[in-house]
Amino acid sequence: MPRILVITDHGDVHVPPVAEHLAAGMELTTIDTARVMLGEDLSFVQTKSGPRVFYRGEHLDDVVSVWYRKPSPLPETSIPVAAEYQTYAWSSLDQHGKSLNVQFRDATWVSDYYSLCRAKPKAGQLATAQELGFAVPETVMTSSENLARKFVRDHGTCIAKPLAVRFPHGKAMYATLVTTEDDLDYAGIAVDPQILQTYIEPATELRVTVVGGEVFAAEVHGGEPQRGAGGLRVRDWRAGADTFWAAPARVSADLEDKCRQYLAVYGLRFGAFDFVVDRAGVPWFLECNGNGQWLFIEDATGQPISQAMARLLTGGARAAPFARGRPAPRTERG
Predict the structure, then answer these.
(1) Residue 186 half-sphere exposure toward CB, CA atoms < 13 A
(2) For residue 307, pLDDT beyond 80
(3) What is the pLDDT of residues 276-286, one digit of tens each?
């Protein structure tokens, strides 16, 4: 029986809506590599006929596609070994789990793990976007107190974003507006490098989700900037849990083509793009997440993203009919 393998947290809410749209006879298996230490054994065997993978004692055969979503991060301090072996055990489990990312070479990966790694650094994203003709805000990524001060002083109003992808427990870090009048502790940038960008006054903001060659554009809004920690103004629609809304949007064929070209540069089959559209109607590229969240967009707009993902995983390519009607958002954004 053809099998689709999903590498993600077992509680990933993106999986069931896609599973609903898989053709009869397709088997779906979810692996969370962080759960190996809990007894969900994972083995790689090299035989005369080639590599074989076993999960919980079952041979994973006939894998036609692999969906690399969001596996749980390995805990760094709670592995059930003595304290002096924590780092050793973490390294062993990490390397073992990553062996999964080089299996199933004949399968369709959405997307290839190492392509995702190459596409992740923000500096590379901005350079690639600019090369493809996207408008890109003037940006500095720095750990230099002096350069950060100068950038804000030269531009007056800027957006500051963390480079970190893992945050303190129970906290979220959002993009914030900063000006020369804000009392900022630039000295802390040495241990918390930041992205600083010129502020683009938004007429609207877009989330453009690309699944294979299918493009789903949505206008997103999270309310007006709110005061956050230290009195700074949060300027990030992800922070507007109570005021967030999204609606289907029309974008130019040129923008759609550039998004597809961007994914092709990195060898990705999926991407969640964020744009801010200025008062003149110019869309400015902010970032692309190669395995970003999209179910909250489907929930809010009715766009059939889960159906498109099912088609991609099973090799289908026909155009998707527009479907409305999922209830309120049920997943995180990012």
Answers:
(1) 17
(2) yes
(3) 999 999 999 99
Question: Can you give the residue range of the structural domain that contains 91?
Answer: 3-110
Looking at the DSSP bridge assignments, the partners of residue 120 are: none
Q: How many CB atoms lie within 10 A of CB 285?
A: 24
Which of the listed residues 199, 221, 243 is the one where a domain comes to its end? 199
Same domain, 280 and 222: yes
Which alpha helices (DSSP H) does 86-203 contain, by range?
Answer: 86-98, 113-119, 122-131, 145-155
Q: Is 151:159 a contact under the CB 8 Å cutoff?
A: no
Q: In terms of domains, do 233 and 297 share one?
A: yes
Reported confidence tier of residue 249, pLDDT bands at 50, 70, 90 = very high
For the chain, give the mean pLDDT. Answer: 86
Q: Is the peptide bond before 111 cis (omega within 30 degrees of 0)?
A: yes
**Both tokens assigned to 173:** 């870090």
Say whether pTM exceeds 0.70: yes
pLDDT above 70 coverage of the chain, percent: 85
Strands 157-162 vs 226-227: parallel, antiparallel or unpaired? unpaired
What is the pLDDT averaged over residues 28-39?
A: 90
Inter-residue contact 36 to 93 (CB < 8 Å): yes
Number of domains the chain is built from: 3
Contacts of 191 (CB under 8 A, 6+ apart): none
In CATH, what number is assigned to the domain containing residue 254?
3.30.470.20
Q: Are residues 86 and 211 in the same domain?
A: no
Element (H, E) at 253: helix 253-266
Tell me: do 226 and 304 sit in the same domain: yes
How far is 234 from 223, CA to CA, in rounded Å?
10
| Whether pLDDT at 171 is above 60 | yes
Q: What is the largest CA-CA distance in the chain?
A: 68
215 and 296 assigned to the same domain: yes
Contact at 8 Å (CB) between 277 and 200? Answer: no
